[in-house]
């Protein structure tokens, strides 16, 4: 965006600070009009014939744009993906501990990638891993939903759980 002396066109279509069209003017006349009002001449449509320029306070305009960008960034939520790793022959107590971690992550609004790692010949029985993932989902289903179904990827079986939408939207709000 070119302002003031950076504008190269000889004639421009001038728009007042209030937004009304003042017609096609020579660049010197447009510059004088802006200087008389202690404002800047800003090129808003450089590809038009003739280019369109607007009289405005450019510093104020840039400040307002930056404030709007910051407000938009504040409103957006980031979702983290946490990972939990299990083995097919996990004990009941260890399973309960891992389930507690999954519950905590889902309550916090994070997605959870649950990985079952197979070693040796365990990979010949993927149904054990799938049964374990289904059991985990059944126990945390009130907190989350399956985003990607159990999938065998090499020696690992992976499933992704996501918090229910109402929980994810509450993440940014503190009560």
Question: How does this model look, in words?
Answer:
The mean pLDDT is 85. A hairpin with a 2-residue loop joins strand 7 and strand 8. Helices cover 37% and strands 30% of the residues. The chain is rod-shaped. It has a four-stranded mixed sheet. Strands 5-6-8-7 form a four-stranded mixed sheet. It contains five helices and eight strands, in the order E-E-H-E-E-H-E-H-E-H-E-E-H. The chain has two domains: 68 residues, Ubiquitin-like (UB roll); 90 residues, Translation initiation factor 3 (IF-3), C-terminal domain (Translation Initiation Factor IF3). The two termini are 44 Å apart. With 175 residues, it is an alpha/beta fold. Pfam families: IF3_C (PF00707), IF3_N (PF05198). It is found in: Cytoplasm. GO terms for molecular function: ribosome binding; translation initiation factor activity. One of its GO terms (cellular component) is cytosol. Belongs to the IF-3 family.
């Amino acid at each position: 965006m070119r302002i003031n002396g950076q504008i190269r066109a000889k004639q421009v279509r001038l728009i007042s600070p209030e937004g009304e069209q003042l017609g096609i003017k020579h660049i010197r006349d447009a510059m004088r009009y802006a200087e008389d009002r202690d404002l800047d001449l800003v090129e808003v449509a450089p590809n038009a014939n003739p280019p369109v320029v607007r009289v405005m306070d450019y510093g104020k305009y840039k400040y307002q744009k930056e404030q709007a960008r910051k407000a938009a960034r504040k409103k957006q939520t980031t979702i983290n993906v946490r990972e939990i790793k299990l083995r097919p022959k996990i004990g009941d107590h260890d399973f309960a501990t891992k389930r507690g971690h999954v519950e905590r992550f889902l309550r916090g609004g994070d997605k959870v990638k649950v990985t079952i790692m197979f070693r040796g010949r365990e990979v010949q029985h993927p149904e054990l891993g799938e049964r374990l993932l289904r059991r985990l989902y059944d126990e945390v289903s009130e907190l989350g939903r399956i985003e990607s179904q159990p999938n065998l990827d090499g020696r690992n079986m992976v499933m992704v759980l996501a918090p229910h939408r109402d929980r994810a939207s509450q993440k940014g709000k503190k009560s």
